[in-house]
Amino acid sequence: MEAIVAALADEQAELSHLLTDLDDSGWARPSPCEGWTVADVVLHLAQANELAIASARGRFDEGLIELTAGLGSADSIDDGADLMVARDRGLTGGEILARWQTGADSLCAVLGACDPHERLVWVAGGLSARTLATTRLAETWIHGGDVATALGVDLVATDRLWHVARLAWRTLPHAFERAGRTMSGPVDFDLVGPSGTSWRFAADSPAPTTIRGDGVDLCRVASRRVDPGTTALQGDGPDAVAVLELVRTWA
User: Fold this and answer.
1) Does residue 58 form part of some domain?
2) Which of 151, 177, 199 corresponds to the end of one domain?
3) Which distant-in-sequence residues (6+ apart) come within 8 Å of 205 by Cβ?
4) To the nearest 10°, the Cα dihedral for 94, 99, 102, 106?
């Protein structure tokens, strides 16, 4: 748990560095998230962190009510996020930055005090504290990249993404289930991280399908930021195409 929370803190710090001293025009830049500016993306992250803090404190339902008070019904999680951002849109960049930083610090503190196996309530259902921390790391990395793209900044990928790749691997059964698909069996990932280290995620039993290639590419595919066909990722086995289609970085 300590390693994941430390990685989350480092990812948050990288985003905070991008936002420090950002002027009004920077906050207003359009992001790769359709219809959202940089300010909207950071506001969304802050809101999601606040909900995660509430979950870790055993008050998920209360936190959700606080964040959605006065909003209409939403047809999907994405629609709900749009409504939440729209309600709070209009805050200054300084106010959003303060809200983001306060939540980021509190999230690391509260998750760091959790038993990694403790079951917590989350939007898509129950998950462990460790998994919640990893989903927050994944989303911070994803949207930090969105902010960097909007600002014309190139971020250097780090081995923090090992946690994100592992999350994508572990949640494959859930991804297939949500899509109404059936896996032919376990799937192994044989990846290479940014530092050149091997990222091997293997099932306890023989896997008929293996995905090989660059770990960062896998994370980008799983975050729906690149098409697998534009990467050098390769797969062997009956589910190779489906894995790259369905893999995701959220639980």
Assistant:
1) yes
2) 151
3) 185, 186
4) -160
What mean pLDDT value characterizes the chain? 95
Residue 68: predicted pLDDT: 87
**Rounded Cα–Cα distance for residues 85 and 29 (Å):** 16
Q: Do residues 81 and 187 lie in contact, with contact meaning Cβ atoms separated by under 8 Å?
A: no
Residues 60, 29, single domain; the answer is: yes
Helix (H, G, I), strand (E, B) or coil at 11: helix
Count of the separate structural domains present in the chain:
2
- Is the pLDDT reported for residue 251 higher than 70? no
Which tokens in the block code for residue 79?
A: 């629609």
The residue among 127, 151, 175 that closes a domain is 151
pTM of the model: 0.95
CA-based nearest residue to 249, from 212, 218, 223: 223
Q: Please check whether residues 119 and 209 belong to one and the same domain.
A: no
